[in-house]
Amino acid sequence: MTTPIRVLIVDDHAIVRKGIRALLATEKDIQVVGEVGDGVEAVAQTLALKPDVILMDLVMPKMDGIEATRRITTDQPGTRILVLTSFAADDKVFPAIKAGALGYLLKDSGPDELVQAIHQVYRGEPSLAPSIARKVLTEMTGASKKPITIDPLTEREMEILRLIAQGRNNKEIAEQLVIVEMTVRTHVSNILSKLHLASRTQAALYALKEGLASIDDVPRPEGT
User: Of 22, 137, 8, 33, which Cα lies nearest the Cα of 84?
Assistant: First the structure.
């Protein structure tokens, strides 16, 4: 039997947490290991419970979801963060992605979209609602064209960057390029370092901005 994806729900509204828990209880390959109501508890429970995926609200007391995301991705880099919020404003979207969130989903999304997004971020794939992907792409396209690195990507790194934008995880990239997975991890680390990026999501969006991938290549929940 496949080990279920361990999920921690972070939201300051108890009714929202209970609703999400009830929804995910119907999924055999997803296990809710806990639920908390603020960012401080989220950081503490991530350390205690070691969840695979965190569903992170952004506006909460004590510590907001952006700061909690930043601390968790720094201290527990193996935990994937999927933002689940009502807010699509720029002052929420861009800081959340910069903080290390791998996915960004709005609360008006359907149940199937949420389940699909959980699976995507668990696999290390960026998952952005279409409206969010386009918002970030527009922002990046309007940014300065000044090169952000004096150390250009190699041909192999460019190839891997394109595959990241297509939502491929390290194992899939290794199989397609016929190289070992450790080599892929090294290339991904070099790509993020050279481009001064914090996550695969940012790398995928950079590829979009530079025309290395299409907006349709960025994975998003099915049915959207």
Answer: 8
Q: For tokens 């892929």, name the residue.
A: 184
Class of domain 139-217: mainly alpha
Supply the pLDDT for residue 121: 85
pTM: 0.65
Rounded Cα distance, 180 and 114, in Å: 32
Q: What is the 3-state secondary structure of 141-203?
A: HCCCCCCCCCCCCCHHHHHHHHHHHCCCCHHHHHHHHCCCHHHHHHHHHHHHHHHCCCCHHHH
Contacts of 187 (CB under 8 A, 6+ apart): 156, 157, 160
CA-wise closest residue to 204 among 113, 103, 89, 83: 103
Mean pLDDT value of segment 81-107: 76
Closest CA to 114 of 22, 41, 218, 215: 22
Domain 5-130 class, CATH top level: alpha beta
Identify the band that residue 66 occupies on the pLDDT scale cut at 50, 70 and 90: confident
Q: Domain ranges in the chain?
A: 5-130, 139-217
Residue 19's nearest CA partner among 68, 77, 84 is 84
